[in-house]
Design brief:
The protein is of the alpha/beta class. It has 4 helices and 13 strands.
Length: 217
């Protein structure tokens, strides 16, 4: 199965030259470390930073430079720092080409639940609802199953929704999936993961070929 870094590396291959990209908390932040050579993208953090670089080398961190997940980051030439209101103005105006988010559940029609588990205390919903409403393209980075082994790729989300029919692609520890009218289309499977395992661990509608290729990671 893919580890977190491999999930992020696969998602980084979806970036295109000139993209403005928002990276959510968790696995998505790792995408900043795997930007393909030869393309230029601007990474945006909703706390007010445009032009993020990879994570800093140990010992060179600056407490003044953090992403939305409070991790220390670096900046690239041409970066800009601004207030949260300006940052969300950029998001709500549709200036973000791609958002990479984590999720607790994704439905086979593209619904996403990623902000609240009933009964658990949370600090707030963050910027996820703005991002899923305004971003042109949404990719989810997540584990395929929960700690009990239950599928997180479902026919219908059971948790409070963040957005409706907005997710385009999902990368999990088991593979790379596109959301289609027929459900989750497995385009690539993780090295060593069988088609049968993906079928057994996906609760939503699934389209997968018997000869589905292994992912190059």
């Amino acid at each position: 199965m893919l580890n977190k870094e491999q999930i992020a590396r696969r998602i980084a291959r979806e970036l295109q030259d000139g993209y403005y990209v928002n990276l959510g908390i968790g696995i998505p932040t790792l995408v900043a470390n795997f930007i393909p050579e030869g393309i230029s993208v601007m990474l945006q953090s909703e706390n007010g930073l445009l032009g993020m670089g990879p994570f800093p080398i140990e010992g060179e961190e600056s407490a003044d430079l953090i992403n939305a997940g409070k991790q220390t980051v670096t900046t690239l030439p041409g970066s800009a720092i601004f207030d949260s209101a300006t940052s969300f103005g950029m998001i709500r105006a549709g200036k973000v080409d791609l958002t990479v988010l984590g999720a607790m559940e994704v439905a086979d029609n593209g619904d996403i639940a990623n902000w609240k588990i009933p009964g658990k205390l949370i600090k707030g919903m963050g910027g996820a609802m703005d991002l899923v409403a305004a971003a042109k393209n949404i990719i989810v980075a997540m584990q395929h199953t929960d700690k009990k082994g239950n599928s997180k790729l479902l026919a219908q989300c059971s948790l409070p929704l963040t957005g409706l029919q907005c997710v385009k692609k999902v990368v999990t520890a088991l593979g790379y999936f596109e959301i289609t009218p027929e459900g989750f289309h497995c385009v690539e499977r993780a090295p060593g993961v069988s088609v049968e395992e993906i079928k057994s661990k996906t609760a939503g509608r699934l389209v997968i070929a018997d000869d589905c290729p292994e992912m190059d990671v």
